[in-house]
Structures are given as structure tokens and as C-alpha cells.
Design brief:
With 82 residues, the protein is α/β, with parallel strands linked by helices. It contains three helices and six strands. It is 39% helix and 24% strand.
């Protein structure tokens, strides 16, 4: 597994695969105010990105993966208008 819960922070580490999407969803839904740390994250599977886009948790750290830093973080930082 490429994610672990460290207090109120969910740390994504290394390559995040499709099987990490459901535990990420559970971690985010089970705790109010949880943050996601992308510092040690490698490439993110589209399913993981979809969870992050749907729930828009606060993000910590600059991602280690250049693609995530360049293209996904700006998208994840946008707030939905309802």
C-alpha cells in the first residue's frame, strides 16, 4: 500500500496504484480535517486522482512526481463552484 495514516495526515508514498483509491477514500471520509501529504508521492493512478478531485482535501508539501506537481496540483487546488 502506498498510503499511510499519520495522525490527521494521509501520506501518499511512491507509486499510488488503483488499489490505493478505496483506502484513501475511507481515510478521508472517516476523519474530518484530514490532509493529504504528496511530498513522497510518485505517479498517481487516475482512480486516486478522482478521489482527490471528488473530496478536495487540503494538500501538504510539493509532490515528488513532476507530472503531479505540474498538472495535477493546480487542478486539485481549484475549488468547485456550486
Amino acid at each position: 500500500m502506498s498510503l499511510r495514516l499519520d495522525g490527521s495526515t494521509i501520506r501518499l508514498e511512491g507509486e499510488c496504484r488503483v488499489e490505493d483509491a478505496e483506502p484513501l477514500l475511507v481515510f478521508l471520509q472517516d476523519g474530518d480535517g484530514r490532509r493529504v501529504d504528496l511530498t513522497a508521492a510518485g505517479p498517481l493512478h487516475a482512480a486516486v486522482v478522482q478521489v482527490l478531485l471528488a473530496l478536495r482535501p487540503p494538500l501538504d508539501g510539493p509532490p515528488g512526481d513532476p507530472f503531479t506537481a505540474r498538472w495535477l496540483v493546480p487542478l486539485l487546488m481549484l475549488r468547485r463552484s456550486v
